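Your task:
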Amino acid sequence: MNIQSKTVLVTGGGSGIGYAIAKLLSEKGNKVILSGRNAAKIEKAAKTLGLDYIVCDVTNAEAVNNLVTRLNTDYDGLSVLINNAGVANLYKLSEDARAYEKSKQEFETNYFAPVRLTEALLPLLKKQPEAAIINITSNVTFHPLLVLPTYSDSKAALHSHTVALRLSLSKDTNIKVFEVMPSLINTDATKDMGGEQNGLPPQVVAEDLYYGLEEDRYEIYVGETGKQRDAYFANPVAAVESFNQGLF
C-alpha cells in the first residue's frame, strides 16, 4: 500500500516503538497523531516531533469514545490505525505469582483495547479510498516466553484476532490488516529483560513496518521473529524449549 500523505493514529506513541514509528511516518510525509495515557509524556513527544496529539487511556471506555469523536471531527481523513500501546509483567507462573491480576491488566491493554478501538474506528476507516489497521504484537505470538507468560497469552490472542479481522475485511472493504511482530527491542519497558544489551533499536521496527506496508506483507517479522516462527512450525516442542533455554 502507499504509505505517504496518510493520516495516521499511533497509540502508545510517547516513547519506544510507537515514538519511532511516528517519527519515521511523519518524515515520509504522513500526518501523524500521537495518543497515550500519560499527558506529560505524550505532549513532550508530540512537541519534539512537531505532531498533533490526543491524550487517551485506551483501556477506558469513555476516553476511547472521546478519542473517536475527536478523530471524526478533526481528522476525518484518518486512514491508518496503529495499535501499539502495550504493557508487560516480567514474572514466572507459580502459586503466588498473582497471574490473574497481571493477566487482566495485560489483556485490558494488549487485547481488549485494540479490539474496541478498531471496531469503533471501522466506520471512519471504511470511508477512505485506502486504509490500514496495524497491530503490533510480538515474537511470543507463536510460543510463550516463560518470564512473560500472560503477556505472551495476550499477544497470541491479538495475533489470532488480527488474522480473523484481515479475512473478515478483505471481501468488501478497502482496509488492509497488518501485523508487526518484533523480537526483543531496546526500550524502557525491556530494561529488566536485557533489552539494553541484546535488543534492537526501535527504529528497526519502524523501518520494517514502513517497507512491509509498501510491499503488502501482512505479517511483518522483525529481528529473529521470522526464524523463530519457522522453527516453531518445523518442531513446536523443540522450538519452545530452545526459546526458553535456561528458564525452566
